[in-house]
Amino acid sequence: MKEIVNRLGKYALVRAVSLGLTLVLAVYLTIVIANWGGALDEVRKSQIMFEEQIKLEAMQQEDPLPPDEYHRRLQDMQERAIIRAGLHRPFPVRSVMYLSNALSLNLGRAEYMRSDYGSRQVSRILLERLPPTLLLIGTAELIVFVVGLFMALVLSRRYGSRLDRAIIALAPTSAAPGWFYGIFLLLIFAAVLQILPWGRMAAPGLESGSLEHALSVAKHMILPVGAIVIGTVFSSIYSSRTFFLIYSSEEYVELAKAKGLSDREIERRYILRPTLPPIITSFVLMIITVWMGMIVLESVFRWPGIGQAFFTALTNFDTPVIVGVVVIYGYLLAVSVFLLEFTYAALDPRVRVSIGGGQK
Amino acid sequence: MKALKELRRYPTAIAGMIIMAIFVIVSIYTVIAIPYSEAIRLWRPGEVHIENPNRAGPVWYDWFTSDRLSRTFIVTLEDEGVIVTEEPIGDGMKLVEILVPFEYHYDRFPTELALVHRWTYETQRPLVSVSWRKPDGEVIALHPAREILHRDSFPVYYISQDGELSRVLGHMARPEERAPTLSPRVGLFARDITDRDRGPMQGRYELIVQAEMAEGDSVSEIRLRVYGEVHGWAGTDHRRRDISVALLWGAPIGLMFGIVAAVGAQVSTFILAGIGTWFGGKLDGAFQKATELTMILPNLAVLIMVAHLYDPSIYRILGIVIALNVFSASYKVYRAMFLQSKELPYIEASQAYGAGNFRIIFRYLLPRMMPILLPQFVIIIPSFVFLEATLAVLGLGDPVLPTWGKVLNDAYNTRALITGHYYWILQPALLLMFIGFGFAMVGFALDRVVNPKLRTV
Lengths: 360, 457
Description:
By secondary structure, chain A is an all-alpha fold. Helices cover 75% and strands 1% of the residues of chain A. Chain A has two domains: 42-90, no CATH class; 122-347, MetI-like (MetI-like fold). In chain A, strands 1-2 form a two-stranded antiparallel ribbon. In chain A, a hairpin with a 3-residue loop joins strand 1 (353-354) and strand 2. In chain A, helix 5 packs antiparallel against helix 10 (263-301) and helix 9 (251-258) packs across helix 10 (263-301). Chain B is α+β, with helices and mostly antiparallel strands. In chain B, 52% of the residues lie in helices and 15% in strands. Chain B has helices spanning 2-7, 11-33, 36-43, 146-149, 163-173, 184-187, 243-279, 281-296, 299-309, 314-325, 330-342, 345-352, 357-393, 404-413, 416-419, 422-450, 453-456, and strands at 73-76, 83-90, 93-104, 112-120, 127-133, 139-142, 156-157, 203-214, 218-227. Chain B has a five-stranded antiparallel beta sheet, with no helix packed on it. The interface between A and B is large, with 65 and 53 residues.
């Protein structure tokens, strides 16, 4: 037991460090791309100039200056502030500065957007939008995982049956992203049947924390969750079923059958156990796609999450928020990959740590 | 080739191939029939579309309704049946009367009415008045405010938006109410003005334009536009553009984007995986790190950021998509397979005869694994087609190209689902779905053909 904990702990540490470094690299790359045409410098500069102007305005209240003196003073202050902020340094130096700001989510002020409490700090705005997105993705992925696994087991038991063939024929539906099915669901349930809401997270005017609010959220979740599930569940079933079929033709399964073990026992000990790691891998890859798909999905359903914040920022040319979302997405992906690799290692005793070479 | 033969055993693969073939044929037809510059011109918003109705449904709506839906038609001065009479009224002046007749046989009201009138004159603009005769002989005077009829710069009289006229018609329809209004498009056509549900009166209508002008002056243009509810096989959008242009051009653009991106992303990963595994060691390690980096780099978000910060032309987007997918997640899958086949005797044999590294990679290692690549390649195409649509839906599509995603974006921005313009969303969405499923069906079947392990168990 102790050995297992030791192994897992070591593995987790090595992977966390490795993924952390990769994340830093990814964010750095993002910053270099974003500042290719000088967009970040522009934003930073205009914010500094604005801050200095406010400072001078405040001084102006006590001790008014004549207009041309005021302008000279303002320019002087702004220039000094820009030098103080290090914006005159060459890009490699600046980029490291931006990198540490981005990694700590210290992304400055949004140009247009505000958080619900009126804050213009990018990190505030984005952290406020995170829970709704997590709620949506968490629910949908839980359903996809459980249903996918269960259906795959059922189908692999009845390989070649009509149900099997029908579900497999549906696997190509996953070629389309969730938002695409969202449009159809909205058309059917909101426009034609008018039984489910058009979008948003809850009916207006309900006190958050009350039962009515929770019910309303649940009702508003049906369509977006449904869209994600339809967009992913069939390919999830397909790939899990394939793994089950491959592993159920292994020799040790035949041996177990010969020993007269019950089907259930064989499934649990000899098929499910070795199949879980590859299934989890394909699940991670799917979650990553779903994270990305949220950008349009949330905009279609006007769900107040990270994706919609991204869309709003795009339509309002709010560059700090856009860069912020990219960074947060980087974090989310790194965390998803880490969590699932960790589960993988916990499930598969063959995974060993070798420092330097990474995962073998 | 054997794989293709075996594919025939899968009905889904055949259906998929038929869909693919249809899209390819439509693409070729489109590029020839509507050349690129023409497509761009037809999709640019502006005056070109003025004679199309606004947000009209597709013509096939007519097949599903018992009523005959109204269509757009235009009557001009040169048309048969238009009568121009002149009568001198003294003082060097004359009265010109232009009778514009047309037949109306639809069961629904038109959506808009507009009259274009241009005059050639020496000194003073002719004094114009317009009246309307219904098939039953009733004459309604349309007397718009003078300034509407007397602008040279903008010689269009939007009959259906004439507020004064709608008040007059409203009074005729419901005299008991205070300040009633009735839209001219209904009032001028109604069988029974008090009951709009009885639909339009069918038969011969006449629009009468009268103008007092100097002897030497004359009329240069009269155009009556009656806009209908359905137009073209795909309908029109909020800018009166014919959606069929975008539906047709969406096919070649989508296919091109999907295939080029799939080649750039999937084939490059495949080749790099071959090279990386063959040389192993540091190179392989570096490639694996790059794969991990690509996994953590939020692809779509970065793509959107770039499209937002720089100009989102389709070539730039394609370039970035490929760059972000060179070390895609399939690297690991391919690597695992190359590691196995690297040890096979025939590779050893080729080494023994002294083949160089790249000869071995490109002549022996990669070709052997082609069957693994092919289904992945076909399956990944639709996801890039959808990626293009996703960007367009976010408003980051190529600014000039007509694509399916752009139609969806317009429809979404104008809330077409809420206002009930379903055709606007359904047509591009169904096309996307067909192209997506077509490729995916072929890809999945190919997967089963070339990976017999999936089939025999």
